[in-house]
Amino acid sequence: MSDASCLTQKFLNQRDTCRKKQQALRSLYNYINQLKFHFDLSEKDIDSILRHILRIKNKDNFIKKLWNIIN
Fold first, then answer.
1. How far is Cα 58 from Cα 6, in angstroms, rounded to an integer?
2. Residue 13 parent element (H or E)
3. Which residues, including other chains, have CB under 8 Å from residue 10's CB and lie 6 or more apart?
4. Which helix (DSSP H) or strand (DSSP E) does residue 17 occupy?
5. DSSP string for residues in 22-33
6. Structural domain span for residue 63
C-alpha cells in the first residue's frame, strides 16, 4: 500500500470514528431528554445522575465500554 493510500485510509477511519462518537452523543442527549420528560427531572437531577454514573464507571464493564465509545 502506498503512503497516500495509508493516509487516506487512516483519515477515513478517523472520520468514521468521529461520526460514530457524534451519533452516540446525540443518542445519549436524546435519551437524557426523554428521562427528563418522563420522570420530570431538573438539570440538577440529571447532573447528579451523570456524576453518579461517572463515579461507578470503573466498576461496571458495560459502563466502561459505553464510556470508551463516547470518548
1. 35
2. helix 3-39
3. none
4. helix 3-39
5. HHHHHHHHHHHH
6. 3-70
Give mean pLDDT in consecutive 10-residue pieces for the chain, a chain of 71 residues.
65 77 87 92 89 72 68 62
> How many domains, the chain?
1
For 23, 33, 46, 68, the CA distances from 64, given in Å and listed in that order, are: 18, 22, 19, 6
Q: What is the pTM of this model?
A: 0.58
Asked if 23 and 17 touch (Cβ cutoff 8 Å), the reply is no
Amino acid letter, 44: K
Determine the Cα–Cα distance for residues 9 and 58; give it in Å rounded to an integer. Answer: 33
Q: How many residues make up the chain in this entry?
A: 71
